[in-house]
């Protein structure tokens, strides 16, 4: 090879290699935006479950994927503004959970793919048109909360047969309560239980609600999934314990000191949400990804709480329990 040709080859190589290296360095990092209705501190375990799902699918944060967070800190009226902020960041997928957060995301965009990590009764609340064909730009995992709430009331009545008046916390800015109340009321009627509603918008109103429970001679309490309630389970359990009030709620509630927990595994659903994200990033449209229903429900009994309340849990419930807290 002549000296002039050799210099051209070397010069060409010097040009090509830096460009190749630069192309590898600027490889697109997928951008995710997560819209949270509550505080970041109450979602640590669920975020880690989601991250674990991503890692299992080959994603590494800030290498090939990045997550931007926005938290409403239990102020649902901020959700729309926060959703718009995430969209302006040009996220590839907008993540959220629960009915208020998912509705805010849905109102904010018809273009950016949306994945709800979980939401109660996605069809009844208008999040999707159907489970098999969600349509639009949204998909995720759902569960039938109205029927789940009716089951909780049945468990409460079976565990404490003398209960006749049961309190139910209602959060007016969560549309899911509208679909839950009729089903829960039907269950209450069949069990000869009077359902007493208390409007509770946030932790600052917990104490007033429990004072109302005292004055109304209510004998038990049933709690529905809502980001604010789930984020303050220990506070609710402590107030109920002071009044020797049996409470049934999500499975997490029993772990926080409640009597009975019955519900879905939220950590598993957050972990599984990574598969929806992966499909979308690989090119599948949300409209073509069926909404999945939760299939695993667990019953947790807190025998320590039962002992404190002076309640003997029937053997019929003990035998059906997935886990017992001593």
List the keywords.
Rossmann fold; disordered N terminus; 20% strand; single chain; 13 helices; alpha/beta; 326 residues
Folded structure, characterized:
Strand 3 (93-96), helix 4 (98-108) and strand 4 form a beta-alpha-beta unit. Helix 2 crosses helix 11 (266-281). The protein folds into 2 domains: 30-143 and 265-295, 3-Layer(aba) Sandwich (Rossmann fold), CATH 3.40.50; 145-264 and 298-325, Response regulator (Rossmann fold, 3-Layer(aba) Sandwich), CATH 3.40.50. It contains 13 helices and 13 strands. The protein is of the alpha/beta class.
CATH fold category name of the largest domain: Rossmann fold
The CATH superfamily title of the largest domain:
Response regulator
Count helical runs: 13
CATH architecture of the largest domain: 3-Layer(aba) Sandwich
Q: What is the helix content?
A: 40-55%
Distance from first to last alpha carbon? 84 Å
- The SS-based structural class is alpha/beta
Overall number of structural domains:
2
Low-confidence stretches: 1-26
The level 1 CATH classification of the largest domain is Alpha Beta
Strands of the widest sheet, in order across it, are 7-6-8-9-10-12-13
Rg, rounded, reads 25 Å
Shape: elongated
Number of strands: 13
What's the rounded overall pLDDT mean? 90
Strand composition percent: 15-25%
Pattern of helices and strands: HEHEHEHEEHEHEHEHHEHEHEEHHE
| Largest sheet report | 7 strands, mixed
